Amino acid sequence: MISVFFMLKVAHSPLYAHSLPEGHRFPMEKYSLLPEQLLYEGTLTQENFFIPDLLEEKWILNTHDAHYFQRLKNLELTRSEIRATGFPLSEGLVRREIQIASGSVQAAVFALEHGIGMNIAGGTHHAFTDRGEGFCLLNDIAITANFLLENQLSNRVLVVDLDVHQGNGTAQIFQHSTDVFTFSMHGAKNYPHRKEKSHLDISLPDGTADEEYLDKLNHNLSLVLDKFSPDFIIYQCGVDVLSSDQLGRLSLSQQGVKLRDDFVLSNARNRQIPIMCCMGGGYSKQIKVIIEAHAHVFRLAQELYS
């Protein structure tokens, strides 16, 4: 049952914005600016935020290959492996990834009691069982889903991935799972060029705008919710679907993103399915556009669950 005494809890890790060398921070600055904006406008207060502890390694190893994680911790990845992640490898970066995964786990546990939890970072859906790529080293979505299942906190987890890029790592991790359903709606011609197979992939042509996007989302997500009957949802709500995004190739407006988020959160609320939201990508040239788009989901959470 969703608590009527809801208070939004948001994982916030300052390491996310400051663990990278100069020249590698954009668009990482959004992880500091977004909470500042939400506090400034009064959507959230300081009581809404928590800084997650480091996650116990056993929960990481419940998803990721032990040899890969050991080499990652020891900074022993090869040059090609590091190049695939897009980040210069460092102890701070690895710590940050562990803390992000912990934030998603803690937000999910909070959602079980209160209906919704948020991670101001997360959505690292390009991390595979045994490797990282695309700015992702550890897959917080998969780690969270497996944590819920392993601890018998959930029986059927639905991953709703609406980042413009396919959640290829998440798809690979759960390719044989019957307890986790992966739903990815993404640009057909966008990264990754070699797609994995989610349980349901909706590939969109370049230039897809609000009406077509929302029609396909409404139809397909409703079918998945009815047929799979999840008891928990993990929502990757990347805003790189915006027409202004430098990497996106789709054409959603700010209103389209808000309607997208509203549809997902309203379905979770109305069906009384706990939901954890993680932010995913956003690469518009103007940082204020990214912040505004990400802020939608937090405002909606307060409107729907307070």
UniProtKB/TrEMBL annotation:
Pfam families reported for this sequence: Hist_deacetyl
Histone deacetylase domain sequence ranges: 24-286
Any one biological process term the GO annotation gives: epigenetic regulation of gene expression
Domain of life, source organism: Bacteria
Keyword Thylakoid set for record: no
Entry's Gene Ontology molecular function annotations: histone deacetylase activity; hydrolase activity
UniProt keyword annotations, A-Z: Hydrolase
SUPFAM superfamilies tied to this protein: Arginase/deacetylase
InterPro entries: HDAC_classIV, HDACs, His_deacetylse_dom, His_deacetylse_dom_sf, Ureohydrolase_dom_sf
Gene3D superfamilies (alphabetical): Histone deacetylase domain (3.40.800.20)
Entry annotated with the keyword Hydrolase: yes
Family the entry assigns: Belongs to the histone deacetylase family.
Name used for this protein in its record: Acetoin utilization deacetylase AcuC
